[in-house]
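For concreteness, we quote verbatim a single protein encoded this way:
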Amino acid sequence: MSVGPADIAFATELFNEIPDLNTRKMFGGLGIYSNGVIFALMQSDSQLLLKAQDAGFIKTLAAAGSRQWTYPRKNGAETAMPYWTLPEAALDDPDMANTLARAALALLR
């Protein structure tokens, strides 16, 4: 399964306050960029994730119910990626989604 036009429209509408927003399909999912900086992903199952490497921002996301993206390797070991799920509440709240996206971007620049 891969993201489709409706998924892309949802992501771009949700993050409508982010400057120079663009998307790029990749690996069945979607990279979400601002001014050439990737700050979010949409997985092929339409799950949105924000890039987070700063401990304070990670705590903010975790407190809001976010989970870190992990996946199992062939040897069974779990690998953690620097992406966290967008809090469930932010999926229905563009103000919250854009606030979190701006926070992610500020720490990536």
User: Anything to note?
Assistant: The helical segments are 5-14, 55-63, 94-108. Residues 94-108 form the longest helix (15 residues).
